[in-house]
Write a structure and sequence with these properties.
By secondary structure, this protein is an alpha+beta fold. The strands form eight sheets. Strands 7, 8, 9, 10, 11, 12, 13 and 14 form an eight-stranded antiparallel beta sheet that branches. The protein has an eight-stranded mixed beta sheet with strand order 31-32-34-33-35-36-37-38, with helices on both faces. Helix 3 crosses helix 13 and helix 7 crosses helix 8. The longest helix is centred in the last third of the chain and has 18 residues. The chain is globular and about 70 Å long. The relative contact order is 0.11.
């Protein structure tokens, strides 16, 4: 046991207060449901009102965790300094032109939060529009969510969260004076979209159950209480978002859950006009809209296009009856997004597990692709403001190669390097190896696993490994550069990412095979990845530390129950481990929108039985578990704090063996952890110190 547990130190013991619930003829017992505060909705806005009994328990858990990790304090400080040393402290983004200005963000030496700045397009003095460090001063938590300048460049809409609960306050800054207007708007979703008149903006209001539900229109100089409701969604399973077409002609109201979507448009030149429907929602059909020169370009899975296709529709009649295929569906070529410029259509797609960018000339239909030769890499489109342009911007990195930002001329095909991520403490890509192996799953599928390790590492099975996984919502974990992972790799670790079912790494089919009734494939794939790493000599049984967060934290809970012997330790960050109880409670923020992902156990007995069969909390067993570190955020609206708190309590009460189970709750943050760029690294350092401790490498 690598943990030195001081004599007389015992973990907190949560009181057992069983509550029985009978669903579909089966009674489920929840011993620790009392850890969920009755006033949880108020706690999200004001953590100070958390009931004293619950606060006392969480603080006792934090104290116990600190005691057991006290031997790693120097290591945590060393890890933090290493990771911080890899960050260019006065870093800045590449300026993005828009009309007379170029906009950017940058950091100052020692600053935790960004500055939003602009300069005259043709050169000149920088103007600081927002100073995130000044705005955060004196606050326990501060997150600058976003900013958007008006089309006439006279005002800036910006949003911030000061609790970690993702209720964002919208403010409007007069850029001529540098001061915010009096019309402050609380409880928004964190974004705002300007109409073309420079004085009207649209935003989304979040209700008491933390669901983005209404679109409001605000006009500068008027009271927010008088803002007009432009759209209100009645289905609690559909969330509302806002965007603007690249052409600037339309504001798009997007609605959807995990498998169905619908879009309405507002003429950005006539912000008082009523929203117009593109096409009514059809269950299990998704579509996204952009616009260029009188034509809507729509990415959709209509008509069985599982990996999506692109269709066109006329601006004045965009309904499905007028959709015409432009880029047909090709099985195995997953379309990930599109942007329509005046003369070009740009799409991001994934083929054979690797991304590429494809440029299409709209007048001729001629296409060419931008791709790279590394075995595994990450590629992404960066947003630009302008529509009548031949220049796009993209970013590229790999596990060994720091991020690079390129401008690309779609006509000349000239690629211009605009920025390369600097690693001040030094980084030699040639000292590392990136590989991708295929892990055989029990049902004959193969699971891609991306690896990073030092070139001089002895691959004799002795190396410890950190295996990261997610596997839900179709989210693909990119094989991108990580300043944090190097701190493990330089200490002899193999760093691995398991691209398991539930993501879209191998197309939309890969996602479908890892959700609802197929969810257990996600867990089996992760164990298969661990077994492949063992079989191919990268590591050994009991030398792997598993890590995942949110839905990936649910994965951690599931594999802890199923294959505890494979792992030296498990790091579960904001883990969604109370799946059954959460999906049975329609009042919780994300439950109705999540039913398409997990199934609805209230109405569907088969879904109930499936979730009951894998939900980590319900399946804790009297067996020997490895050391576990669970991390939570008190104001987290996505995975509520009581999920990991209940799970840890049940693990301690049920398991055999002496391996400790730790819970660390950030009492001043939510789903994303600490808000500052350096404070977040301290949390990573804690997790990595735990990984080193459980594998006997904590002396490094």
């Amino acid at each position: 046991m690598p943990f030195d547990i001081p004599a007389g130190i015992e973990p907190p013991v949560a009181a057992r207060r069983p509550v029985e619930t009978t669903v579909h003829g089966t009674t489920v017992v929840d011993d620790y449901g009392w850890l969920r505060a009755d006033n949880w909705q108020v706690v999200m806005r004001d953590p100070a009102v958390l009931p004293a009994e619950i606060r006392t328990h969480l603080e006792a858990e934090n104290a116990y965790t600190a005691t057991l990790l006290v031997s790693t304090e120097a290591l945590q400080a060393k890890l933090f300094d290493e990771m911080k040393g890899r960050i260019k402290q006065d870093d800045s983004s590449v300026p993005t032109p828009d009309g007379p200005f170029a906009y950017a963000s940058r950091y100052v030496e020692g600053g935790q939060h960004p500055l939003i700045v602009r300069t005259p397009r043709e050169g000149g003095a920088e103007e600081i529009l927002l100073d995130g460090n000044a705005l955060a001063s004196g606050k326990a938590y501060f997150r600058l969510a976003g900013s958007a300048h008006a089309t006439d460049h006279r005002h800036l809409a910006w949003t911030a969260d000061e609790k970690g609960s993702e209720y964002f306050t919208l403010r409007i800054r007069d850029l001529s004076t540098g001061t915010d207007l009096a019309e402050e708007i609380p409880e928004t979703s964190g974004g705002a979209v300007w109409a073309n008149d420079g004085k009207t903006l649209f935003y989304v209001w979040v209700d008491d159950n933390h669901r983005p539900r209404r679109v409001y229109r605000h006009v500068i100089g008027t009271a927010p209480a008088d803002d007009a409701v432009v759209y209100e969604e009645q289905d609690p399973g559909f969330f509302v978002n806002l965007s603007k077409t690249q052409s600037g002609r339309f504001i798009v109201i997007g609605l959807g859950d995990h498998e169905t979507s619908e879009s309405w448009i507002i003429d950005a030149d006539r912000p008082d006009s009523a929203p117009r429907l593109i096409a009514p929602r059809i269950e299990a059909e998704k579509y996204d809209v952009d616009h260029a020169e009188g034509v809507f370009y729509i990415e959709t899975n209509q008509g069985g296009a599982e990996d999506f296709k692109i269709v066109t529709a006329p601006e004045d009649a965009p309904g499905r009856e007028n959709w015409r295929d432009l880029v047909p569906h090709v099985e195995g070529r997953l379309l990930l997004g599109l942007t329509a410029y005046k003369h070009h259509l740009v799409r991001l797609e994934r083929v054979d597990g690797l991304p590429r960018i494809v440029i299409r000339r709209l007048d001729t239909g001629a296409e060419h692709a931008i791709a790279f030769a590394e075995e595994a890499y990450s590629l992404g489109l960066s947003g630009v403001y302008e529509y009548d342009t031949t220049t796009i911007r993209f970013s590229y990195s790999s596990m060994t190669t720091p991020s690079r930002v390129f401008d690309y001329d779609m006509e000349s095909r000239e690629r211009t390097l605009r920025k390369e991520q600097e690693v001040p403490s030094g980084h030699d890509p040639a000292a590392y190896v990136t590989r991708r192996i295929q892990a055989p799953a029990a049902d004959g599928e193969t699971v891609p696993v991306t690896l990073l390790y030092r070139k001089d590492l002895a691959l004799d099975g002795s190396a410890p490994t950190l295996l990261y996984g997610y596997g839900s919502y179709g989210i693909t974990i990119p094989a991108s550069f990580s300043i944090s992972a190097l701190s493990l790799v330089d200490r002899g670790f193999v760093y691995a990412i398991a691209h398991i079912r539930g993501g879209k790494d191998k197309g939309f089919r890969w996602y479908k095979l890892g959700r609802r009734e197929h969810k257990e494939n996600t867990f089996d794939d992760f164990v298969a990845a661990a077994d492949a790493l063992i079989a191919e000599g990268y590591t050994a049984k009991g030398r792997i530390v598993a890590q995942g967060g949110s839905a990936g934290g649910m994965l951690m809970g599931a594999i802890a129950n199923r294959a505890p012997d494979r792992f030296a330790g498990i790091i579960a960050e904001v883990p969604f481990v109370d799946v059954l109880n959460t999906m049975l409670d329609a009042t919780l923020p994300l439950t109705p929108p999540e039913w398409p992902e997990w199934g609805n156990p209230i109405e569907d007995e088969a879904a109930f039985r499936t979730i009951l069969g894998y939900s980590p909390y319900e399946n804790v067993a009297a067996q020997d578990y490895p050391p576990i570190l669970a991390v939570a955020g008190l104001t987290d609206p996505r995975v509520t704090y009581w999920e990991p708190a209940k799970w840890v309590a049940r693990l301690r009460a049920t398991k055999t063996g002496t391996a400790p189970v730790l819970l660390k709750t950030n009492m001043e943050a939510g789903h994303g952890g600490a808000s500052g760029r350096f404070d977040r690294l301290k949390e990573v350092a804690t997790s990595y110190a735990f990984a080193l401790l459980t594998t006997g490498k904590a002396e490094g």
